[in-house]
Each structure stands twice: as structure tokens, then as C-alpha cells.
Amino acid sequence: MARVLMPVGDGTEGLDTLYAFFRLPEDGFEAVLAGPEARVYHGVMHEVPPEEPIPWDITREQPAYHLKAQIAFLDVDATQYAGLFLSGGRAPEYLRYHQDLLRITRHFFEANKPVGVICHGVEILAAAGVLQGRTLTTVAKCALDVTQFGGAYVDRPCVVDGNLVSARTWHDNTEFLKEFVRMLKRLQAI
């Protein structure tokens, strides 16, 4: 079974991550959670609360499910994975400084393997220096992470650019995962 690497950390967005974690095995791919250490991480849920007495203009964060990383970034051999899936939440804000994760991320672009990125996951791509000349989408508040690092931001549910498929938020999961799985299956067919 081909494996897909899914980096996580404290503050990883639950729906971004768990939808893919359970969806990928349905098409024959093993989803492998990795983190700074092989341990349990605290997931979060982000949403703009509906009908609040005082409206929110940004997402509110709440605790969500816990996620167990099976392997530490340091121990990941990226050549053993068919694809990379970067979810959002607050975790990418600090994961983007982890040099082993940046090394792993660059491998997938150098090897032209499928990369799926949603929401704040784009912060990891920006830090890895792989956005130059790419067109992608992300949550609107991360558009600067794309444009400041040489990419073009578009506000669409799902964008495919070469080996990269991107989505704005978990609201776009269905279209996003369909494209990511198609990309993984094309690679397997080669």
C-alpha cells in the first residue's frame, strides 16, 4: 500500500486532517501521521461561529480530537512516501521552522510527487521555498504567504498546479481530496 505522509502538531485543524486521514485508505493509500516527535498531539477546530451576539470576523479555535504521530520528522525517509498532505490550523505556524520537515517538503517537489495543501499548511510550503511560480489557493488570510514567496494566489475552492493541489479550508475537502487522490493514482499508474 502506497503511503502518504501527513505532518501534524499541536493546533492541527481536525477536519482538515481527519477527513484526509480516513479518506485516503478508501482508495488504497496508507495515511501516516508524522510530527516533531512520535507522540499524541492536540487537534483544534476552527470555525466562524454562526449567529453570535458579537460577530467574529476570523475563526474561533476550540479543542478537537487528539492525533497520534507514528513517526518523528527526523526519522522520515521521504523516498518511502508517494505523497505529502499538509493540513492547516495553527500548527504550521511553528512547524514551518522545523528543518527536517522543510527537508521532507522539498523532497516532494524535487521528486515531483503529489502534494496536497489546505488552509495554513501553505506556511510550510512558503518556508520550504517551493512556491516560486506556482498558482494556488489557501484561506484568504494566508494569501500573503503565497505572494510574498513568489506564488500567485487565487480564491477558488481547489487549484491544481503540476504536482500541487491546494484548497482554502475544510469546506472544500470533497473537491480537494478528489483531485489529490486522482493525482496519487496517476502516479501509481506510471
Descriptive overview:
The strands form 3 sheets. A 7-stranded mixed beta sheet has the order 6-3-1-7-8-12-11, sandwiched between helices. The protein is globular, with a radius of gyration of 15 Å. Helix 3 crosses helix 4. The chain has helices at 14-26, 91-95, 99-110, 122-128, 143-147, 173-189, and strands at 2-7, 12-13, 29-35, 40-47, 60-68, 71-72, 83-86, 115-118, 135-136, 152-153, 158-161, 164-167. Helix content is 31%, strand content 28%. It is of the alpha/beta class and 190 residues long. The chain has a single domain (2-189), classed as Rossmann fold (3-Layer(aba) Sandwich), CATH 3.40.50.880.
End-to-end distance? 15 Å
CATH architectural designation: 3-Layer(aba) Sandwich
| Lateral strand order in the biggest sheet | 6-3-1-7-8-12-11
Stretches with pLDDT under 50, minimum 5 residues: none
- What portion of residues belong to β-strands? 25-35%
CATH topology: Rossmann fold
Shape: globular
CATH superfamily placement: Class I glutamine amidotransferase (GATase) domain
Helix content: 25-40%
Q: Please write the CATH class name.
A: Alpha Beta
Number of helices: 6
Average predicted confidence as pLDDT: 97
Quantity of strands, as a count: 12
The H/E string reads: EEHEEEEEHHEHEHEEEH
Q: Any idea how many domains?
A: 1
Structural class assignment = alpha/beta
Largest sheet: 7 strands, mixed
What is the radius of gyration computed over CA atoms, rounded to a whole number of angstroms? 15 Å
